[in-house]
Structure formats: structure tokens, C-alpha cells
């Protein structure tokens, strides 16, 4: 189709604006990567922006060789996997049950859930509740409080209600019960929504530092983001090196002399952000469109 004169003028402008936006997002990532791969003392002189001037991997050897960081990484991976699977399971069951219009007290339950989205008891009552449940200073404080999200439930409920009733009715005529309808119809058709909600939930768990800072005092239970938050407020390298530093890296005294707190911080940031970024390409296809097109022909 032939473009108008205005469209010909607007097209390069839109491309330029979008390119600048992409650059503004990518540049900080490239800058941190360059600093993390550069000798700290050399990077402190300035002039390192998108490419390391004095390449080294000692920063990553220090970070990955630290026992505290490795353990916090395992805590983060564990809470992300269990929290995402558990959250999707609870959200799906709640939304599926409330999708039945004949469910007793359905309106009351939805109203109660809606109230929890608008109001909350505050941090102190929440802390007291976690203490009464025995969740403080345990791994499960990362899992149980976040299993149910009212927002995710309403999004999932709306999606399930959009599934053509003819599919459910056809399954019921074939003798399928609610569980079979859920497993064979609702879940297969809900894969795009489950993937989207799963990704948002996983990112939330991976990036959460708050719970580890306020609900956990045992350093062996802190996630990597809480460790990073502690590191960013540190004033020297002892927060990272300590007594668990990689001995092989320590032996390389000439390179260790060039380590700075900033270079270690950038390495920790990269180590904590790259894994979750790698998940996006595998789930991207589920954000394009659903799979309901053509499932019911008029």
C-alpha cells in the first residue's frame, strides 16, 4: 500500500525516537558489563563506557567464588521456582472456581478479594501475622505470603471467562467433570496467560530484596538481591571478600590490587540480572496472541 506524504515524513522520525529509547535502555546494561569486565582501578580513572579498556575476569571470579553469594543464588533460584509454580497453581484454581457463575456466594467472595486490592493492614500487622505463623527467618516466608495475588486472579478470571462456553458445554456433554475440563480445555487454552503471569511472578520473586531485608535475619537465608542491596550500601570490600574469598583469586595478588568496590558491585549486578533476562526470549511467543482464534467456528 502506498504511503502518504505525512507517513513518509513520520516514519523516519518514529524510527529515530524508538532507536533512542532502545539505546537509553541498553546503554546502562552495556556500561555495567564493561565495568564488571574491566580492572577496577583502571575503571576508576574514567573513560570506560561500553567496552572494557583493561579486560579481566577477576571480578566474576571473586563474586562466583564467594560462598555467601553462591548460597544466596540458590535461595533466589529456589524461591523463584517454587513461588512461581505455587503462585500459578493457586491463581489458576481460584480463578477457575470463581468463573462458575452458579458458585454460592460468588459475588461476596469476589468483593472480599477486591477489598484486599484496595486496602491492606500495613507492614507492622503483616509482620506480626508472619511471626504468629512461624514464617519469620525461614525460607517459606518467601513462598507462602506471595502464593495468591488478587490482581493476577482477576486477570486469569477474565481470561477464563473469555473461553467460549461451547467448549466447556461440549466437554460436559461428553461426561467431563470440572477437573477434566480444567486439565483438558482451560489449561491448554490458557498457556499464553499462564506464561505471562508466570513471567511476571518469577521476575517479582527474582528481584525482591524487601522480604530478605525485613523478615530474615539469618544471612544464610538471604536472596541474592538482598545481598546486592547490602553490598550497594557497603563502604569497603569486606562485605564481599571476607573469609570466603576464592583462594585462587587471592593468590593473584597483582590483579587483586586492582579490585575496587564498584567493579565488584557491577559484577554482582550482572550475575543477578542476566539469568532472568535469558528467560524472556523463550516466553516471547506467548505474548503475541492467544490460541483461541478459530477454536469455535460460527
TrEMBL record:
Gene3D superfamilies (UniProt xref): MetI-like (1.10.3720.10)
Pfam families: BPD_transp_1
Matches recorded under PROSITE patterns: ABC_TM1 (PS50928)
Stretches assigned to the ABC transmembrane type-1 domain: 69-272
Any GO BP: transmembrane transport
Annotated keywords: Cell membrane, Membrane, Transmembrane, Transmembrane helix, Transport
Record flagged with keyword Transmembrane helix: yes
Species classification: Bacteria, Bacillati, Bacillota, Bacilli, Bacillales
Cell membrane recorded as keyword: yes
Spans traversing the lipid bilayer: 9-30, 73-97, 109-128, 140-160, 262-283
Compartment(s) where it occurs, according to its Swiss-Prot or TrEMBL record: Cell membrane
UniProt name for this protein: Carbohydrate ABC transporter permease
Family: Belongs to the binding-protein-dependent transport system permease family.
Membrane topology reported for the UniProt record: Multi-pass membrane protein
GO cellular component: plasma membrane
Amino acid at each position: 500500500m502506498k504511503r502518504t506524504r505525512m507517513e513518509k515524513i513520520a516514519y523516519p522520525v518514529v524510527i529515530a525516537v524508538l532507536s533512542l529509547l532502545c539505546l537509553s535502555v541498553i546503554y546502562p546494561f552495556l556500561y555495567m558489563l564493561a565495568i564488571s569486565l574491566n580492572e577496577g582501578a583502571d575503571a576508576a580513572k574514567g573513560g570506560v563506557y561500553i567496552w572494557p579498556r583493561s579486560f579481566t575476569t577477576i571480578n566474576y571470579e571473586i563474586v562466583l567464588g564467594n560462598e555467601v553469594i553462591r548460597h544466596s543464588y540458590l535461595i533466589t533460584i529456589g524461591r523463584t521456582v517454587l513461588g512461581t509454580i505455587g503462585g500459578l497453581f493457586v491463581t489458576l484454581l481460584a480463578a477457575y472456581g470463581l468463573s462458575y457463575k452458579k458458585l454460592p456466594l460468588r459475588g461476596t467472595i469476589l468483593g472480599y478479594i477486591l477489598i484486599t486490592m484496595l486496602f491492606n493492614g500495613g507492614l507492622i500487622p503483616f509482620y506480626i501475622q508472619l511471626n504468629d505463623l512461624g514464617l519469620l527467618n525461614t525460607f517459606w516466608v518467601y513462598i507462602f505470603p506471595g502464593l495468591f495475588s488478587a490482581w493476577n486472579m482477576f486477570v486469569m478470571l477474565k481470561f477464563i471467562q473469555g473461553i467460549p462456553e461451547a467448549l466447556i458445554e461440549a466437554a460436559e456433554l461428553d461426561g467431563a467433570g470440572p477437573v477434566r475440563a480444567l486439565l483438558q480445555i482451560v489449561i491448554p487454552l490458557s498457556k499464553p496467560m499462564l506464561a505471562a503471569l508466570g513471567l511476571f511472578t518469577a521476575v517479582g520473586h527474582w528481584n525482591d530484596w524487601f522480604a530478605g531485608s525485613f523478615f530474615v535475619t539469618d544471612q544464610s537465608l538471604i536472596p541474592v538481591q538482598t545481598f546486592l542491596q547490602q553490598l550497594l550500601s557497603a563502604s569497603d570490600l569486606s562485605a564481599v571478600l571476607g573469609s570466603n574469598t576464592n583462594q585462587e583469586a587471592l593468590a593473584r595478588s597483582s590483579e587483586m590490587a586492582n579490585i575496587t568496590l564498584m567493579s565488584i558491585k557491577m559484577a554482582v549486578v550482572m550475575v543477578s540480572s542476566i539469568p532472568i533476562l535469558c528467560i524472556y526470549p523463550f516466553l516471547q511467543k506467548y505474548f503475541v496472541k492467544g490460541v483461541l482464534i478459530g477454536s469455535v467456528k460460527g
